[in-house]
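An instance as discussed:

___
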Amino acid sequence: MGEPKPPSYDAATDSSKYGEAPAYEVGYQQPPYPPTATNYAYPPPQANNYPYPPSSDQQAYKDMGNDPLAAEHSAINLSTGKSEEELLGIISFDQKNVRLGFIRKVFAILGLQMAVTISMTAWFLFHEPTKEYVQQSLPLYLTSYGLFFVLYFVLACCTSVARKYPVNMILLSLFTLSLSYLVAAISTFHDTKIVITAFGITLFVSAAIIIFASQTKYDFTTCGGILFVLAFSLFFFGIFAGVMVPMGYMKILNVVYSFLGALLFMAFLAFDTQLIMGGRKHEISPEDYVFAAMMLYVDVIYILLFIMSLLGGSGN
């Protein structure tokens, strides 16, 4: 007996039999229908345990591993559609803008501080009643020095205070006024021409050092330990030399001490400038703009005082 055959095309499409199942020969078995989505899992499970092929988001998170920074960048990539190179450029650009804003803020504050110092010094020098009162008021001088000393360590050591606005600006204003008073009071014991010359030299030298430190490839931030040792050496040199050197050599000692002090604080100014500019081994956080302005201001003021001492010395 031969294999059963399905009905012919004409028999299957006969209009008179429309709606009825086509007649099959005896023994013919109808083939199974194609599989549907309800009885067949498509596509089959993958080796990576994903029930379906991973999407672009899933594949990105799978490839990045456990690196949290990569996860952040990948999330930005998926949400913005930008490449990693473009995102790195955006991040670098934002960091550069933050640093530039920080630098502008620091030097704006420094400019205001120097304006206050110059104004107070001019007032003390050219207003004779004030000049005479300041020269005879030792307690006020000592009070200003103590306030300067305390506020310096508060702003330098207490980060929470130095970053809290407006407390930090109030303390910095008091610090500026106290140090400006000290400079103005010391200036009253010098000839007016010497004071004006010292201010001019200081401003010119400070500007030159700041520009040089900003442009040079040499990293002064690696010399912090050396500057610290030199500062203490100069301090003890002044104490022991003042005690042991005969009075006849005190003028020479004053010139040497003032010259070395001016050089040391010029180096500190270059060091602090690079800390503020960033891009070196060490740098200051943009949140510490008050501390940064205070450092530059102290450097410039000490350069001024040493140059003033070098040019003229005290009148008393």
Observations:
- Residues 41-80 form one domain.
- Residues 37-42, 60-64, 87-93 have pLDDT under 50 and may be disordered.
- The two ends are 140 Å apart (CA to CA).
